[in-house]
Amino acid sequence: MPDMDVLLAGLSDAFSLVNLLFVIAGVIVGQFVGAVPGIGPVMAMAIAIPFTFFMPTLPAIAFLVGVNKGGLFGGAIPAILMNTPGTPDAAATALDGHPLAKQGKPVKATKMALYSSITGDTFSDIVLITISAPLAVLALKMGPVEIFALMIFAFSVIAGLVGDSMVKGVIAAVFGLLCATVGIDPEHGTPRLYFGFFELFDGLPLAAVAIGMLAVSEILRRLASAGSTPRSAITSLDGDDPTVSRVSWAEYWSCRYVMARGAVIGTVLGAIPGIGSTAAAFMSYASAKQASDEPESFGKGNIKGIAAAESANSAVMGANLIPLLVIGIPGSIAAALLISAFKIHGIQPGPLLFEQQGRLIYGLFGAMILANATNLIVGQFSLRLWTRVISAPESVIFSSALLLCIVGVYMSTGGLFGVAVMLVFAVVGYVMNVFGFPVVVFIIAFFLGGSFETYLTQTMVILDGDLTRMIDYPIAVALVVLALISVWWLGFRKKG
Amino acid sequence: MKKLSTFVTALCVSFVLAFAAHAEWKPSGPIKLLIGFDAGGETDTLGRVVAKAMEDQTGWKIIVENKPGGGGIAMFTGLAVAKPDGQTLGMGVNMPILVNLVLRGKDLPFDLDSFDYLATIARAQLAIIAKSDAPFDDMAGLIEYSKGDDGALIAFDAKPQELLMNFVGGASGANFKLVPTKSSAEMIQDILGGHVAASFAAGAHIPYLESGDVKMIASANDGRHSYAPDTPTVKEQGFDIFVDPYFFIAAPAGLSDDTKAALSAALNEAINSDEVKAVIMNTLKTEPSDLGPQGTTDMMTGGVSNVAKLFGK
Amino acid sequence: MSANRLSGVFVACAGLLLLFLIIPANTETVDYGRMRPQTIPDLCAILLVAFGVLHAIRPRGEVAIEWREVWRFALFATIAAVSLFLMGRFGFPVIAPVTALVVMLLIGERRPVWLATGALIIPAVVWLVVVQLLERTLP
């Protein structure tokens, strides 16, 4: 049981006026910057970090947490309104979010994203605050062999998303995996498939490929299909009509199972460093679709699809802090950025953190709850603001979005090379789309491919090259069995 | 408030000193400091605080740019062809550069002589660690343990570490099974979870040393670590090999002597400032160590032969 | 041969090309350890050949090629590429407004207010925020 004095001191730090202002500023910055096409939540955090060098510790961390949480919701906005997600997890949100927005209900779609995002986030924050220590110990039991098995399980669930042609889905996935092998190989450290570009030693830049395939490809397509008469980028039927723009309590409540499942998937995958929010968002989406009575309504603007994706990807971030705070291990890029912010302030996350910095940690917990509340309130304004902005003529919206993607990728990859990669993959994405190869499947395989190869290599070393030795690892065996059941169930459901 | 006024005074004093010291050469515009790694990482953090301190002390304008790729190879490729006017500098880590120079030197568009070396910022302290309940306490014990039925799993996250263990394994007949990982965090996770017998660690393990979860088997540097003066190096334990990762700053070759002197003096002053010292202490758990232009050059040339030894060349 | 079937043939050929030319020429040979640098790329190439052939034999799904859109996509992609090249030479402040203006004119925007917004105000705001406020660089 924590010391009551420390807890109260920490909480009162969190609720001090200065801290409150930094949380609010962080959320606003996060929601705004995270929503700009091509920039996104991670970039927002990376940009914000240098500004926190010279701030006091708690406000600095609180500000970054605000940016991160605001950014998580912000990232869903362009995905829903323009179908131009900047990250793979936002691509999961776009699957149903954008169709709903196209039906003239952009405010409703973004509201659903906001509510489910905060629901998932709050759930994982509560888990973090109450039972992080035992969970972190459990997570440590997951070694390379177990994580490899977990990835197999995740893939087996996500496979349910492959569209009308299984063969095309497999080709897209294999192509994604192939692209993920560009760069240094995990076991021997030799550079592969870099064609003389030293920039490719670290692999194809993730941000450039994701933004190129998901956002720029769509922007160029929209430019290409634009008629010669000026029109708005999105038509909002709901505007200020509360009956269309509202998410009613009944609708929210009907998503309770979907959101609960999403929150649990996100929390579990977040607590285990190594897999991350892409897998969580798509696993949650795929299982919501599978469990639904009307799976065919997914992808056509079903609010449950939005709820599934957003609750899971937001839950990952809170849960990422479990291994971060308890054992000092970051589970995602955003978490790694947070660790470097801690370190700059002389704080080493790890076993002694709660003992030595109890007050700060409770302050941080207080700030997280505050940030969630702020997110909810600020979100109401920013989603209306963005819906307004996007109803400007599409000529302005898409030309600006194109410039912003160039700027965002230039900043995050450090040069025009990354921007060129972005453009190449925009074309690849368009061609795949025209021929009916699922781009989203490519992106999932590409994002998880690097870790997949690393964990496979580690597993091979640990098992002396003999995969049947996995039998000595009960957790791994259980996960593989679950994967088999999931594949069987997928086949069964399809026929039934 | 008082703190602020002392800070301002210190700033003014250092301004005056700086102008006195660097009267010979002044940049004619902003200086670009290229960082060979992503935003948000250790190198980025160090580079940005050094740049900030240098700005405060000299009044020069310094723009920091991230040019990630290949552990700095991409950035140095660009730096090698930049104009040697002292307005473009690059910061990287020596190890990936040295490894690539030794292994695929002919494919690289630069060599050691393509740069003028200005300063080092700090030396990362690389340790070999194990869980505290492991049945061994030093390299000899680890080697003995590895000769058991299943060998010893050892996690590493960079090529030189793998080579160092191969060197030790070759010399002692140990059965090390080397597990490649992507970060020091992942290695700590594997150690704490009991998934590997030993691993490398570059500072992230220090809190666990304090908490008693982890013990240190050896220092992999060419010298013991400040926080663990009783743990001998791999070299002291009988294997003539070490890995010394340095953060360093270089410029394209051909700087004039004035420029070189002014830049290295400014860098030295910045690196030893209190702000930079604090950040180095916080991130790397070590003191700043600026070897100066000559020392940095020697470190790089010496590094090539040491890395060649790691590869058995 | 339908475009859908053709895509399978293309994938299979790409797989063969990768397997026998591209991958061997662009990887290094290592003779120890559990995995080769080529293991996963080769596996991918083989799967591409296999599934490409499968798709060519029994094409599924739909292919909807709308030539007007394809050509215009190529046009806008080319504009973006040229703009990138020019940005590397002349910088963002010069090229970004021109790019935005060309793009807007091409999709039929003629209203001066909106043209000014997209071609002047937006690039200026981006430049001010990134370069002045955040002290990051742009091309």
UniProtKB/TrEMBL annotation, chain A:
Highest taxon in the source lineage: Bacteria
Ranges in a coiled coil: none
Alphabetical keyword list: Membrane, Transmembrane, Transmembrane helix
Keyword flag Transmembrane helix: yes
Bilayer-crossing regions: 6-30, 42-65, 122-140, 147-175, 195-216, 263-286, 321-339, 360-381, 401-427, 434-453, 473-492
Domain DUF112 as annotated: residue spans: 20-443
Pfam (any one): TctA
Protein name in UniProt: Tripartite tricarboxylate transporter permease
From TrEMBL, chain B:
KW Cytoplasm (keyword) present: no
Keyword entries, A-Z: Signal
Residues annotated as signal peptide: 1-23
Pfam family, one: TctC
Top-level division of the source organism's lineage: Bacteria
Database matches in PANTHER family: BLR1237 PROTEIN, TRICARBOXYLATE-BINDING PROTEIN
Family assignment from sequence similarity: Belongs to the UPF0065 (bug) family.
Protein name from the UniProt record: Tripartite tricarboxylate transporter substrate binding protein
From TrEMBL, chain C:
Ranges annotated as spanning the membrane: 39-57, 69-86, 113-134
Keyword Signal attached: no
Coiled-coil ranges per UniProt: none
InterPro entries according to UniProt: DUF1468
Keyword terms, alphabetized: Membrane, Transmembrane, Transmembrane helix
The DUF1468 domain, residue ranges: 9-139
Pfam families attached to this UniProt entry: TctB (PF07331)
Domain of life: Bacteria
Record protein name field: Tripartite tricarboxylate transporter TctB family protein
Source organism of this protein record: Flavimaribacter sediminis
